[in-house]
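Good morning C.,

I know you're traveling, so I'll keep this short. The sequence:
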Amino acid sequence: MDMWKNPETLYSAYHDQHGVTERFIKHGMQNALSCIGYAPAEQNADSWTYEVEINKIFKRVEMYINFTKGLSLQKHQLEIRAGERILVEFATKYTSNSIKDIATNSCCHLSGYWGNNSYYTCQLLVPGAHALAQCWTDTDELFQGIPNWNSKPIDLRHPYLFYYGHVCAFTKLKIVGGKEASELDNVFSRGMDPDVLDPSHCHGHPPVPPNWPSREALINYVTRTRMMILKETAKGKVTTRILSIVIEHERMHQETLIYMITQDRKMSFEERRVGIRKLPLLISQKGLISMISMDHNIEPEVMIEAGDVDLGVDSWDLTTFVWDNEGPVFHTKVSEPFLVAAKPVSIKDFLCFITQGGYTNQNLWRKEDFAYFSENGFRCPATWSLVENEYFVHGFDSSKHWTEVAEEPVYVSLAEAEAFCRWMNCRVMKEEEYQRILDCDMNGEVVGLRGGGWEWTSTHFYSFPGFQEMAEYREYSTDFFDGKHYVLKGYSDATHKSMRRDSFRNFYQRQYRYVFAKFRCCRSVLS
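The tokens, ready to paste straight into the viewer:
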């Protein structure tokens, strides 16, 4: 899409100083006249005037030929008087809203976006029903690999089966409406994110039923509900915004399901290995300590200067969907220069922290964090297992000895990240510092900031000034502006590619251990 620009910019582009466009338009008129039997020698194109007008109402550039001497087309009984002009061509320009209107009017989902809104963009429009079906296929594939849908590998979440019903019930509510909600619609209407330190406190959600529906009953519910959704979508009245809300909602749950599956893998691995010594111990604890050396790249050595930062985006200026907490643009600044590590803390680096008593040194932890981790016996990251004095690291589809993945980023909670940083006499970066690095690190010295795992920040999850909750899903952000959630930026390997945008703000509680989230050491220069 050729985007709408400043009228002066458009005019100079179509009335260029070399006359390229003028010659093109005049040549087009010559060919048009030739097609109706008017010989080129009779056209006297030198007397024509090329004119450009910027039509602000229709958002287009109009190119005219003015016949300053007139033109008589006797064969066609047509007389062009002197000074009359013919519109030869117009070039429509697009705004963010007009592109959204095209998607909505065609009942399509804006599934992909490339380019710069100030110049040229390319959008991937997928029919709404097809976009939903693609998303549902990915969800189904995840559940096909889960043997026990009643399992609850993360205690702070519902069992798997809830989420199979929930993403469907949510989509139905947003597309079909909730006037005739069934009992299962209500049961699955909203998930839970309880206070990690006190799970009895939680935002509003339906009561947990005494018995969850059977797997067969749930599959029947989802099948029926999906048919209702597709039927409503076929009417052509579902906006691209609603499609984006329900699809991104389901994509987010696909990622959190991967966190749950990873914990399931960990528990199965430990059950198989405990008490079974098929392999000799690879490394003794004493040998483990002696072989670990810290990577010097985790020391904050890349200088980032102070300066202005723009956080967030203005949704009206975007063709793609964004959640309400991603805007509006917040003009702020990083007031002091700071140092940041070139690389995130690795598994090997974090293991050094563990072996040197990081989890038992309460001076490194906030009081409530230390109490929570100590009381629950957490002595390593949630994706790790300690089996027969050996550490293993689990992913969605693999379990490996730590030496095989030693250089990969470690995934931890913010509480663990901050304890490590205090051990290093450092700190975790702030949200505005994350953006400042993106703006200033032109040489790419800071490696893997965006990907390879969400990047923890020490910034509380709150709204930007001028925030307006989205009418379609008011509780998405506002329920979590509670002082307990913190901002994460970037994305993980489990994040769907359609959601990997710089403005996205993920949010979790500081003690929540299951996110694929990395961190790196920062240090203030002046203080």
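Safe travels,
E.
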